[in-house]
Amino acid sequence: MSAKQLWRWQGISNEGNLLEGVLWADTRPSLMLALEQRRITPLRINRMRVKASHWSRERSAETIHQLATLLKAGLTLSAGLALLAEQHPSSQWQALLRTLAYDMEQGISLSTSLSQWQHVFPPLYQAMIRTGELTGKLEDCCFELARQQKNQQQLADKVKKALRYPIIIITMAVMVVFAMLQFVLPEFAAIYRTFNTPLPLLTQWIIAIAHFSGQWGGLAVAFNLVAVAAYHLIKQKPYWLIMRQTFLLSLPVIGPMVRGQKLTQIFTVLALTQNAGIPFLQGLESVTETLANPFWSQRLAQVHHDISAGKPVWLALKNCGEFSPLCIQLVRTGEASGSLDTMLRNLAHHHSEKTLSQAENLAALLEPALLIITGLIIGTLVVAMYLPIFHLGDAMSGVG
């Protein structure tokens, strides 16, 4: 995250006007220097608290889309950023947009300026905007970037919606099972001990599980807490990211969605760079910059190496092992016909639509499966608790 801090200031301009605003700066002296460069004498400076919730993917994508609209309307880059700053409701976003506009006025490119705000604009933004700067089609790249981010957000929302109901069901099932094991089952076990009838094997197993959970439950909770803490320590390590991606791709339902999301991103950037006339190898480098996972970076590095060695693009993708036969066939057709950019754009659209469809079907697959699993677990507990009742009649008649 950026080391810059947010400051609210009040000052007087050279014309004697009282001004105020918010700015990003590393330190208080650097802020005062920035105000002096703008010919403002500071009177009061207060540090503001930065709200991490304001740095959301939705706001970043919306800002880029609005900027593309202003650029298409004929405004300059600095003027568009300044106008967005005036209209934005968040003070920290206002300061950020004014900082970007000031950088534009100083001759700094937008992609270079965004590289200092990677927690707000991920590498994908920088690569797409750099492509637009190189080709002179910045507004088109911004529109495509905003569309791609909107699709990613739709995919994330569909997955969350699909998982929301199963998570509620699982939580309720765990609570019910815990209550039955810790409070209900011991009472039944105490009643059954007053009779000399042996308990059914299923009931004995459930009682043993309840005893084990009551004796070692605290240790299990502590182990889970340690596992969560260890995960937070290693979750950004390259070896862990590679292992996690490999595991996700091997899953039957989640794997195709993860692969489709990454292929959509890869083909979207490649289609833009090809359409702009950028060499394929340079486009691959731009794609690699947008990928935060070393698993895919290594695969694209292999593709880059094979193409540099003289192999055709379709063969390099085939040797990579992560691209479907459809991808290879369309890329091969595009190379042969000279319409590679069109084929890449079609592949990006195909994988985007397919991934969204898979996300919609996720709920239809999870809900009945979880209902069956939770029904079996709770049903087994109920049967285990009430099964000995059928043997109590024989025991009571024997006593009589």
UniProtKB/TrEMBL annotation:
Similarity annotation: Belongs to the GSP F family.
Listed name of the protein: Protein transport protein HofC
GO terms (BP aspect): protein secretion by the type II secretion system
Signal peptide: none
TM regions (residue ranges): 162-185, 205-234, 362-387
Superkingdom assignment: Bacteria
Record gene name: hofC
Keywords: Cell inner membrane, Cell membrane, Membrane, Transmembrane, Transmembrane helix, Transport
Keyword hit for Transmembrane helix: yes
